[in-house]
């Protein structure tokens, strides 16, 4: 898919110059798991993966799409694992996980801005030295000015996953779709395709089927929130180059939950 040439729009925001390039969605929220940032590494952040993500986000941004991101922290820390394996208090372990998401948000911000894309990090935890506090109206204004906004620290509350944060922030900013980027999984299957090669992939699922079949699209709190507010979800493989653009343009890839 050729994205063509672009010109400056209001407030310096790039818009498509070529007729016919009309994204399906004008405002999206992308959920990036921490694991998706690892690439082939066992831990941390893979530079090649980060560059692939930011180059795709830049092209989507150049289409005039308003992009917000919620990032997880599982490549550094998982609160549930720390509680189970180390015996940590669950709330303390979850707060440590929120700090991991802030690390990932700063990495993404730096990579995007090196690519020439203005970016703001907003944190649900007060950490003024490195990020703005999360303020809904300010986040929306950043999007309107053509900045990518990265939401860090989940909801700011323990016992809540970053999936729930993604659903909540998507609804708060009025996103048209929640994009769930997965690590080497190209949609929702009836069973784990890595263990069961015969597992059937779903092209489309209703919210209630995803809940009843316990298909692990996202945690049940997040999925219920999307269902109650009619927010569509697209689950797709982040590792396939160009997939973020394809989803935004409306290509039928991955699994649609609606």
Would you give an account of this structure?
This protein is α/β, with parallel strands linked by helices and 258 residues long. The chain is 36% helix and 19% strand. It has one domain: Carbamate kinase. Strands 6-5-7-4-3-8-12-13-11 form a 9-stranded mixed beta sheet, sandwiched between helices. Strands 1-2 form a two-stranded antiparallel sheet. The chain has a two-stranded antiparallel sheet with strand order 9-10. The relative contact order is 0.16.
Quick description:
The protein is of the alpha/beta class and 258 residues long. 36% of the residues lie in helices and 19% in strands. The protein is built from eight helices and 13 strands.
> Order of SSEs, N→C?
EEEHEHHEEHEHEEEEHHEHE
Topology, number of strands: 13
CATH superfamily: Acetylglutamate kinase-like
Mean pLDDT: 87
From the structure above, extract its key features.
single chain; 258 residues; alpha/beta; Carbamate kinase; nine-stranded mixed beta sheet; two-stranded antiparallel sheet; 8 helices; disordered N terminus
Topology:
Layout: E1 6-8, E2 14-16, E3 27-32, H1 47-62, E4 66-71, H2 79-86, H3 90-114, E5 119-123, E6 132-133, H4 136-144, E7 148-152, H5 162-173, E8 177-182, E9 188-189, E10 201-202, E11 204-205, H6 207-212, H7 220-228, E12 233-237, H8 243-249, E13 255-257
Parallel strand pairs: 3-4, 3-8, 4-7, 5-6, 5-7, 8-12, 11-13
Antiparallel strand pairs: 1-2, 9-10, 12-13
Helix pairs in contact: 1-3, 1-8, 2-3, 5-7
